[in-house]
Design a protein that fits this description.
The chain is α/β, with parallel strands linked by helices. The protein contains five helices and eleven strands. It starts with 5 loop residues before the first helix and ends with a strand.
């Protein structure tokens, strides 16, 4: 068996650096109380609603929050209040494939299935919903993640769903949508280790930005 080449060693070092940072960020998020999460989420919701890119966008993709993420419920309500179109992720297990499917209303969330990951999403046999890239594409994607740096680098959960989806967006006639990450200030890092195929985010919103 041949020893790994320099490229293999660099890839292994990158994976190890990402794994270590994910562990540190999970600890930071676990230490964050519910009231503080709610306070930062409300503050970010107001920042989003006042944001020029949000105001000019019509077709918007947004994640349904897990407990350790900025809560997006108020933003989703405003998307419908403003008459915009809202798309949410459907993750395919054991792959890096994700679709963005249309939500008909904020109340529609209560009809969604809970996955084994404790994420609400349209069921696999739900074929009636429009997939964003099968139609007019997207103007704006709100991105989740575990950590971010101020250069726009993002550390996800290691599945590659969003990087793969953004590659698909780039092939769509409408082009790549503007991307905004929503983060607790505790998720902002000095530097996030990235590979060449990791897609940078256009803007990161957090309390102190």
């Amino acid at each position: 068996m041949e020893p790994p080449g320099e490229g293999g060693e660099m890839a292994a070092a990158l994976r190890a650096a990402k794994r270590a940072l994910r562990g540190e960020l999970r600890q930071r998020l676990q230490a964050l109380g519910a009231a503080e999460k709610q306070r930062q989420s409300r503050l970010l919701s107001r920042k989003v609603i006042d944001h020029p890119k949000y105001q000019e966008s019509q077709r918007i993709a947004i994640f349904l929050s897990m407990p350790d993420e900025i809560q997006t419920e108020e933003i989703i309500k405003d998307i419908f209040k403003q008459g915009k179109e809202c798309f949410i992720p459907r993750y395919k297990p054991h792959s890096n494939h994700m679709d963005m499917l249309k939500l008909s209303s904020a109340e529609d969330i209560s009809s969604l299935a809970l996955t084994s990951w404790n994420i609400l999403q349209p069921s696999d046999d739900d074929s009636a919903r429009e997939e964003a890239l099968a139609g007019g594409g997207l103007d704006l994607i709100f991105m989740p993640g575990l950590g971010f740096d101020k250069k726009g680098n993002r550390l996800g959960r290691g599945k590659g769903y969003y990087d793969t989806y953004l590659e698909r967006c780039m092939k769509h006639p409408s082009g790549k949508p503007y991307t905004i990450a929503l983060a607790f200030r505790e998720q902002i890092c000095e530097s996030v280790p990235v590979a060449e195929n990791d897609v940078q985010i256009d803007e990161i919103l957090y309390e102190d930005c």
